[in-house]
Amino acid sequence: MDNLTVALDAMSGDFGPRVAVPAALQALTQHPNLHILLVGNPTEIESLLSQKENSKSSDILSRLTIIESTSVITHDAKLSVAIRHSQGSSMRIALELVKSKKAQACVSAGNTGALMGLAKLLIKPLPDIDRPALMAVLPALNQGKTVILDLGANAECDSNMLVQFAVMGSIMAENILGIESPRVALLNIGEEEVKGLDSIRAAAATLRAHHKINYIGYLEGNELLTGKTDVLVCDGFVGNVTLKTVEGLIEIFLSSLRLTITRKSWWMRILGIWLQRRVSKNFGHLDPQQYNGACLLGLQGTVIKSHGSANQKAFVAAIEQAIQSIEKNIPDRIAMSLSLALPKSDNS
């Protein structure tokens, strides 16, 4: 089994090393071939490691290396300022480790715009790709899965970008999910061909004529988790709002069940426990913590964006996304497929 090396931006996100360090140790425990480069403040990281040291074997700790950083890009930093002052930051150093081939992937819970900008600057987009897109694999009904992009990297997208996202999403669904001729749809405000922005209708016309893409038309937001499509394409503004709305609703639903279990009435507690078991069995795969981690698709290397508010379980899921991308050799697979899959008119 080949060794894997992942660089973790340990300082970004709402909780920084308090989540990144235990998540790194858990991932190392689960993957004997994994090496982690933990980028951050050595004093903070070593303090957290010392609290876990007695319960961790020397083998696990030997596969963890601390890389010092001197600053953190804040979540509210403007893009131009963040990039201009990024030298020495945990995010930039983690990306530089991928650029220099010392790591095969980077995972960060930091500022999305800064991560996108620095990744484009350091790792570079693939040929034929205008701008990378944030992509995640979301659960659907009947244990299905749907590739959705963009989830926030590009607030505004023209028709060419939407077509590129559709092609990359189709490649991902075929190679990661094993779906032959995956169904591709555009997220829109209606199913009629005349609905939507000019960019969406222009992308639809291109995809409709594209013989390598199994384009099925428009889907509305209420069909996101129904499994009606294997790939759902939208601009980053719509995708980010849609994703966070769905996650919020799921979390409210799960929290309501937990509240029911804590009620004093014995029959309410029993009912709550029964409901939670039923829900966990039928809908547990919808828990947002289980699919945290969006891949910045279209780069020459692997970059995974974790939720800023991710807890340990969710951050481990983001590391798992990075491992899967490395093992499946996703950037190279996309690069090999793009020149054949993209419409010639888009590349002229």
Strand content: 15-25%
> CATH homologous superfamily of the largest domain?
Isopropylmalate Dehydrogenase
For the secondary structure, the number of strands is: 11
What kind of sheet is the major sheet? 11 strands, mixed
Give the strand order, joined by hyphens, for the main sheet: 3-2-1-4-11-10-5-6-9-7-8
Integer-rounded radius of gyration: 21 Å
CATH fold description of the largest domain: Isopropylmalate Dehydrogenase
Shape field: globular
CATH architecture of the largest domain: 3-Layer(aba) Sandwich
Mean of pLDDT: 86
Q: Note the run of SSEs as H and E.
A: EHEHHEHHEHEEHEHEEHHEEHHH
Extract low-pLDDT stretches.
none
CATH class of the largest domain: Alpha Beta
Please report the number of helical segments.
13
Number of domains: 2
Q: Structural class of the secondary structure composition?
A: alpha/beta
Ends distance: 42 Å
Function: Catalyzes the reversible formation of acyl-phosphate (acyl-PO(4)) from acyl-[acyl-carrier-protein] (acyl-ACP). This enzyme utilizes acyl-ACP as fatty acyl donor, but not acyl-CoA.
Subcellular location: Cytoplasm
Pathway: Lipid metabolism; phospholipid metabolism
Protein name: Phosphate acyltransferase
Describe, in plain words, how this protein is organized in 3D.
Belongs to the PlsX family. It is globular and about 60 Å long. Strand 5 and strand 6 form a beta hairpin. The protein is α/β, with parallel strands linked by helices and 348 residues long. The mean pLDDT is 86. The protein has 13 helices and 11 strands. It has an 11-stranded mixed beta sheet, sandwiched between helices. It has 2 domains: 138 residues, 3-Layer(aba) Sandwich (Isopropylmalate Dehydrogenase); 164 residues, Isopropylmalate Dehydrogenase (3-Layer(aba) Sandwich), CATH 3.40.718.
